[in-house]
Amino acid sequence: MDALFITFEGVEGAGKTTLARWLSERLRQEGIPNWLTYEPWEPRLREVLLEHSDLRREEELLLFLADRAIHTRHIRVALAEGKTVICDRYADSTLVYQGYARGLDIDWVRQMNQFATGGLQPVRTYLLDVPVEIGLTRQRERNRIGAEEIAFHERVRAGFLAEAQREPQRFLVLDGTRPLPDLRELVWADVSRLRSSSVSVPSQNGACAESSSGKGAV
Ligand code: T5A
C-alpha cells in the first residue's frame, strides 16, 4: 500500500487541527508512517502576515504560493518515502481565501496553485463545514491571522462548499458541529477504505480517489 496525501480544510475554528492531529496519532498507533504538516508551512510567514495587515491581496497570494511551492517539495519527498502526509490546509485554502473571499479571479488562482504545486493534489480532502459563528467562537481570544468580518468568512465557507461540489470524488464534507468521536469514526472509516483500495499517491494532474460525498455533509 502506497502513501496517501490527505488534507483538512474549512473555516477558522472548524476543527481541522484537532482531527488532523488525531489522525496522525491514530495512524502512528497502527504502525503506519505519516507526516503531519500544515500551511502556512514557514512559521515566519504567519508573522509577516500578522505584521503587514496592509498587504495587497496579490501580494498575499504570492506569499502563500511561494510557501506552498517549497512545502510541496517536502511533501513529495515524504510521499516517496512511503509516508502518508496529513496536511492542515493546502491549495484549497488559497483558492477560497484569496479567490472566493478576497475576490481574485478564481480560475487564475487555480492556475497559480497548479504552478506552485506542480499539479500535486490530495487524494482526499476532509472539509469540516461549520457555521462561521461557531468556528469563530471556538477560536475566540486566540491570536489569529484571520480577524476579518463575518461576511468574509461566509464567502470562505461558501467557497469551500462550491469546491466540494466541483470535485465530489476528492472532497468528503463533514458536519463539523458533530461530536468529535463521530468525526473521528467517519474519518477513520474513510481512511481505512482509501488504504484498502488501489488508490495511492495521486497523479500529477489530480486526485484519483473514487467515490464519496461532496454533495452533503455527513
Ligand atoms: N490562509 C491560509 C490563506 O488565506 N490562504 C492560504 O493559502 C492558507 C494556507 C491560517 C490563516 O491563513 C489563511 C487562512 C487562515 O485565516 P491558522 O492560524 O492556521 O491561520 O488558522 P486555522 O487554520 O483556521 O486554525 P484554527 O485553529 O483556528 O482552526 P481549526 O484548526 O479548524 O480548529 P481547531 O482544531 O484548532 O479547533 C478549534 C477549537 O474547537 C474545538 C477544539 O477543541 C478547539 O478548542 N473543536 C470542537 N469542539 C466541539 N466539537 C467539535 N467537533 C470540535 N472540533 C474542534
What does this 3D model show about the protein?
With 218 residues, this protein is an alpha/beta fold. Helices cover 51% and strands 12% of the residues. Mean pLDDT is 90; it is low at 203-215. The protein has a single domain, classed as P-loop containing nucleotide triphosphate hydrolases (Rossmann fold). It has a five-stranded parallel sheet with strand order 2-3-1-4-5, sandwiched between helices. The longest helix is centred in the first third of the chain and has 24 residues, at 57-80. Helix 3 (57-80) runs parallel beside helix 5 (106-117), helix 4 (91-101) packs antiparallel against helix 5 and helix 4 packs across helix 7. The protein is built from eight helices and five strands. The protein has helices at residues 16-29, 43-51, 57-80, 91-101, 106-117, 132-138, 150-166, 180-196, and strands at 5-10, 34-38, 84-88, 124-129, 171-175. The chain binds P1-(5'-adenosyl)P5-(5'-thymidyl)pentaphosphate (T5A). Residues 10, 12-18, 39-40, 64, 89, 93-94, 97-98, 138-139, 144-146, 176, 178, 180, 183 line the site of P1-(5'-adenosyl)P5-(5'-thymidyl)pentaphosphate. The site of P1-(5'-adenosyl)P5-(5'-thymidyl)pentaphosphate has 25 residues, from helix 1, helix 4 and helix 8.
Give the full name of the CATH homologous superfamily. P-loop containing nucleotide triphosphate hydrolases
Number of helices: 8
> Judging from the principal axes of the Cα atoms, what is the shape?
globular
- Residue stretches low in confidence (pLDDT < 50, at least 5 long) are 203-215
Average pLDDT: 90
Please state the structural category: alpha/beta
Task: Provide the CATH architecture.
Answer: 3-Layer(aba) Sandwich
* Percent helix range: 40-55%
How far from one another are the termini?
Answer: 27 Å
Return the CATH class: Alpha Beta
Q: Tally of extended strands?
A: 5
Largest sheet: 5 strands, parallel
